[in-house]
Amino acid sequence: QVHLVESGGGFLQAGGSMRLSCAVSGRTFSSYAMGWFRQAPGKEREFVAAIWDSGYTNYADSVKGRFTISRDNAKNTVYLQMNSLQPEDTAVYYCATPPSAFTPVTTFQAMGRNSGYWGQGTQVTVSS
């Protein structure tokens, strides 16, 4: 079974940087899209970023220019580099991958937790 484990969350001040990691096992990592979602207190879960097997990336407008998603196929790991962090970035961040290949961008963005595979989440807290 596909298993995802996030790491790298924690506390930091506004303007700081942090890198999240997600290690994936149980499937051919390079053949599938990988991405990140987040859920802030009192808010709905939202899409953050994704990267496809081709290297194509997609970002939410709220993080574009500040966050960078990347993947290391040799390590079966996807990363989210977060720069210029703001208090509104405070959330639980979840790593996710769809159940099959060839997932369109819009389908990935709308992916629910009942679809695909998800990590346990890692807390990111940004203070002003």
Overall description:
The protein is mainly β and 128 residues long. The chain has one helix and eleven strands. It has one helix at residues 105-109, and strands at residues 3-7, 10-13, 18-25, 34-39, 46-51, 57-59, 67-72, 77-82, 91-97, 117-118, 122-127. A hairpin with a 5-residue loop joins β5 (46-51) and β6 (57-59). The radius of gyration is 14 Å and the shape is globular. The chain starts with a strand and ends with a strand. The relative contact order is 0.30. The mean pLDDT is 95.
Shape estimate = globular
Separate helix tally: 1
Order of helices and strands: EEEEEEEEEHEE
- Cα-atom Rg, whole angstroms? 14 Å
Largest sheet: 7 strands, mixed
* Class from secondary-structure proportions: mainly beta
Strand content: over 45%
Mean pLDDT: 95
From the N-terminal CA to the C-terminal CA, the straight-line distance is 40 Å
Low-confidence stretches: none
Strand element count: 11
Overall helicity? under 10%
Summarize the structure.
The protein is mostly beta strands and 128 residues long. The protein has one helix spanning 105-109; strands at 3-7, 10-13, 18-25, 34-39, 46-51, 57-59, 67-72, 77-82, 91-97, 117-118, 122-127. Strands 2, 4, 5, 6, 9, 10 and 11 form a 7-stranded mixed beta sheet that branches. A 4-stranded antiparallel beta sheet has the order 1-3-8-7, with no helix packed on it.
List the helices and strands and how they pair.
Layout: E1 3-7, E2 10-13, E3 18-25, E4 34-39, E5 46-51, E6 57-59, E7 67-72, E8 77-82, E9 91-97, H1 105-109, E10 117-118, E11 122-127
